[in-house]
Every structure is written in structure tokens, then in C-alpha cells.
Amino acid sequence: MPKIVDHEQKRKLIAESAWRIIEEKGIEHASIRAVAAAAGLSPGALRHYFSTQDELLLFIVDYYLTRGVDRASEGLVISHIPIKAAKEILLQLLPMNEEKRTAVGVWWLLAIRSLTSLALQAKKDELIDGLHDLTKAVLDILAQAQLLPPAVDIQLETLRLAALIEGLTILALLRPELYTPETVEQIVIRHVQELCSRDTDG
Asked: Is the dihedral of CA 12, 17, 37, 109 positive or negative?
């Protein structure tokens, strides 16, 4: 009787093996051969799933970010209070726990690698566009509740809020002892509060 191969389980094993190598040794060591060995596969078997290192990295990004979104959405109830809802959505984008730190670490590896890889640029742009969509959604919630100043520039504030989230993300990865989850949450809350009370005419 032919052996039944669980391809999804195999791809999960490959993604997790590759990420361990990236964490411990750096992305330059996550070759097809090295990842295959860590996953207990032959290089030929791994190439059945991924023909290049960039394809492998794209899968790792999708695996960790999609899993993170799915888990974050499980049981998540957004507050009906606009300012609280804004905070809750924004905190979902930040590395507030170990799993999110891993996902964000993968994202930053892809972002850096995309600077020299055409194969990864489309995914990088897709993820940044997604961030902009979410920050605009937060501003729309506040605007619909008439909490934003009338003269607010939504387009500019969308970019500014996205820049804040990305900045907090990388600082929380690089200096977690300074940018603790509690501190990150305080910064997000302060930004939303100031945005709602700021006089944009000056």
C-alpha cells in the first residue's frame, strides 16, 4: 500500500526547520541543502516543494504571518468604544508575545532581502499595503465617531501611523528590554489620544 504523505505537515516542518536556522545562523545559512538536512529530507525532496531560497522564504513568511493572523483573530472581539477599538487593532500588528516576535522577525528578513530580490518585492509591497489598509481602517473608525479634528489629513495620518507601528515593531525586536509590551501599549494609546485631540490647523 503506497505511503500517504501529509504535504501540509511536511511544509510546516520545512518552514519551522528553516526558521530555526535563520534565527540561529542567519538567512545566508538557510540554503536548500541546510534546510533539507534540518527537516530530515534530501535536497531533491525539498526542491519538490521549493526550487529556490526565495520561494522558501516566501513560504516561511506566509506560514508565520497567516498563522499569526488566524490565531490573533480567534476569539478576538473588538470593542464598540472607538478609541479602545483603535488600540486593539493596532496592538494586533505589534510583537506583543513570542509568536508575534517570530512572525515579525520573518517579515523583516523578507523586507531586507527584498531590496536585492525581485522575487520578494511583490510580497513586501503587499504586506506594506496591508499595513496601510489597517492603519487607515483605524483612522476611519475614529473619524466616523467624530473623534478626529475636522482638518485632519487622513492620507498623511495613515502613513504616520504606519510609520509608528513599523518603528515600534523593529525597536521591540532590537531592544525588548526598553520597548516592553507594556511600554509599546502605552505609546500606542498616547498616540491615538493625541491624534484625537490634536489641533491640525497650526
From this structure: positive
What would the pLDDT profile of 68-115 be if each residue is shown by its tens digit?
Answer: 555 555 555 678 899 999 999 999 889 988 878 877 888 888 888 899
Give the burial class of 104: count Cβ atoms within 10 A of its Cβ; 0-12 exposed, 13-18 middle, 19 or more buried: buried
Report how far residue 164's alpha carbon sits from residue 168's, in angstroms, rounded to the nearest whole number.
6
Compute CA 35 distance to the chain's CA centroid, rounded to the nearest angstrom.
23
Task: Of 105, 112, 118, 126, give the one whose Cα is nearest residue 170.
Answer: 105
By residue count, the chain amounts to 202
- Report the distance separating Cα 159 and Cα 164, nearest Å: 9
Q: Where does residue 116 rank: exposed (0-12), middle (13-18), buried (19+ CB within 10 A)?
A: exposed
Q: Percent of the chain at pLDDT above 70?
A: 88
Summarised one tens digit per residue, pLDDT across range 167-195 is 999 999 999 999 999 999 999 999 999 99
Alpha helices in 26-153 (DSSP H): 32-38, 43-47, 53-73, 82-92, 98-113, 118-144
